[in-house]
């Protein structure tokens, strides 16, 4: 004969365990400043590359992909997990805003490239991408921690 329900003590233990897991995940959201900067650098490479001829774009994209691989590898080694930024939950609107901002910068970069602007212009747009990505990463981290601590 099998039981179909948990005892109150078992249910409480399961809830406590879930709460402890959320609290642990919340601590993973406390990234060191360099980690936000690394994300910003990856985004700056993607945005910046679009302002240059194809060989430079390809090089920037390759560097950005290598940067992503290094970030994921570091997170898995250090924390035992990589938390995808596109996850469901309270962080999704943050990602949507960040994604729209980066896409807007990419379109701007492509338009400016076609206009034949001076070298400093695509570098400035890439710098804006860096700042936006770092601020977005910090914002995402704070929202994620709040969500995990709240137990949503």
Description of the structure:
The chain has 152 residues and is mainly α. It has one domain (8-150). The chain is 78% helix and 0% strand. The protein has five helices and no strands. The protein has helices at residues 8-28, 33-49, 54-79, 92-115, 120-150. α1 packs antiparallel against α5 (120-150), α2 (33-49) runs antiparallel to α3 (54-79) and α4 runs antiparallel to α5. The longest helix is centred in the last third of the chain and has 31 residues, at 120-150. The mean pLDDT is 86.
Short description:
The protein is an all-alpha fold and 152 residues long.
Question: How are the SSEs ordered, and which strands pair?
Answer:
Elements: H1 8-28, H2 33-49, H3 54-79, H4 92-115, H5 120-150
Helix pairs in contact: 1-5, 2-3, 2-4, 2-5, 4-5
């Amino acid at each position: 004969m099998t039981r179909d329900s948990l005892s109150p003590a078992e249910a409480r233990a399961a809830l406590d365990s879930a709460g402890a897991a959320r609290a642990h995940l919340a601590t993973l959201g406390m990234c060191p400043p360099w980690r936000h900067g690394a994300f910003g650098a990856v985004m700056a490479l993607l945005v910046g590359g679009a302002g240059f001829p194809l060989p430079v774009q390809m090089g920037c994209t390759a560097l950005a992909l290598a940067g992503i691989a290094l970030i994921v590898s570091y997170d898995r080694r250090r924390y035992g997990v990589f938390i995808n930024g596109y996850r469901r939950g309270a962080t999704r609107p943050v990602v949507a805003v960040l994604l729209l901002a980066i896409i807007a910068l990419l379109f701007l970069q492509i338009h400016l490239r076609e206009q034949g602007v001076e070298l400093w212009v695509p570098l400035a747009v890439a710098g804006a991408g860096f700042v936006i990505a770092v601020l977005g990463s910090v914002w995402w981290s704070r929202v994620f921690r709040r969500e995990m601590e709240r137990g949503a």
